[in-house]
Every structure is written in C-alpha cells, then in structure tokens.
Amino acid sequence: MTKAYWINTFRAISDPARVAAYVDLAGRAMLAGGGRFLARGTPAAAFESGVLERTTLIEFDSVEQAVTTYHGEAYQRALAALGDGAERDIRIIESIP
C-alpha cells in the first residue's frame, strides 16, 4: 500500500486563540485517524516562491485514510473551532511506490 502525506500550511493567522483550539482538536483527530506527525513548525528555509509559514507534515497509510480523517467528525469539529482564524492550504499526496 502506498503511503500518503497530508501537508498543511498556514498562509495567514488572524486569531491565534482559534488556531490553538484547532491544533489541539486536529492533532487528536489525525492521530485517531492513523496519522503520524513527521514535521511541524516554521520552515528552516524557503526558496523560490516559498514563504516561511507554519507547515505540518502528517503521514498516513493511504490516501483513503487521510481523506477519511479530513471528512471525519473529529476533524470537522477542529475546522469549526478554527473558523476564520487562519487562511490555510491543505494537500494530500501519495508517496512514490
């Protein structure tokens, strides 16, 4: 089975308290969904069009597992807690077999 990687970047944060609530709920939802946090924080370096924005990399056993976690009730509660507290970009990609 091909692994999948959920990449979450925060383009802008307007409400740090809402982001903190999201981080707590989302982290628990991703772990419960089988995710493993590989990296998180502000990049050490960014090149070309790169921006030094908070980024999280979570590994899942499959794309299906990651997408199911995203649509799951627990993660949707995290999104509700975040509301408009941040502008983000989320991508789920497959690893190279």
TrEMBL record:
Residues 3-95 form the DUF1330 domain. Pfam families: DUF1330. Gene3D superfamilies: 3.30.70.100. InterPro entries: Dimeric_a/b-barrel, DUF1330. This is Uncharacterized conserved protein, DUF1330 family. It comes from Geodermatophilus obscurus.
